[in-house]
Amino acid sequence: MIRVLLADDQPLIRSGFRALLDLEDDIEVVAEASDGKECLALVKEHLPDIALVDVQMPVVDGIEATRRIAADPALAGVHVVILTNYGMDEYVFNALRAGAAGFLVKDIVPEDFLHAVRVAARGDALLAPSITRKLINRYITEPLHTDAGTGLKELTNREREAVVLVAQGLSNDQIADRMVISSLTAKTHINRAMAKLHARDRAQLVVLAYESGLVVPRTS
Predict the structure, then answer these.
(1) What is the predicted pLDDT for the residue at 212?
(2) What sequence ranges are listed for the domain HTH luxR-type (predicted)?
(3) What is the model's pTM?
């Protein structure tokens, strides 16, 4: 059973998503929150698999809520999916930096919404690396050289190569072909790199690759 928490300050939005989720045999809505502070408390209480979090909420916004969830080791199994009205924008980018697994636009069709919840529950990023890269190219004009740079020193050459290819938007199979290794080995390199860089998923791994300067954003 996939356990979901809904966090949005608009009751109509919450009720609409809940109505869809309640029809599914493998999904259970365990709690609803109307602001970020309530969201954090309920996440700690219920430990959902998925937290669907509105990016702009009162008291504590969705980005800060995501950051606090991602920073808490006790909540490592909670996958945050950001809900937004606007699609790709700076709020979404900052949510990815904070540790979100991806984002959904609120006018998504029901079938895609349900599929996205199941994808996120498996621990997969809800955002193609190529889309993440577009966000980064838009909002990072130069490497930030944050603490991610320290983690880069721990990467092997092959892990570093795999991270660069992830940031370029390649799938595991494409990375395996490029590196002339098996898909399983490619996945192993990526997972080890994620662990060393403390990235929760592939989307955040791409962000860290740019922030650390390992990959340089395009200027055009």
Answers:
(1) 80
(2) 148-213
(3) 0.78
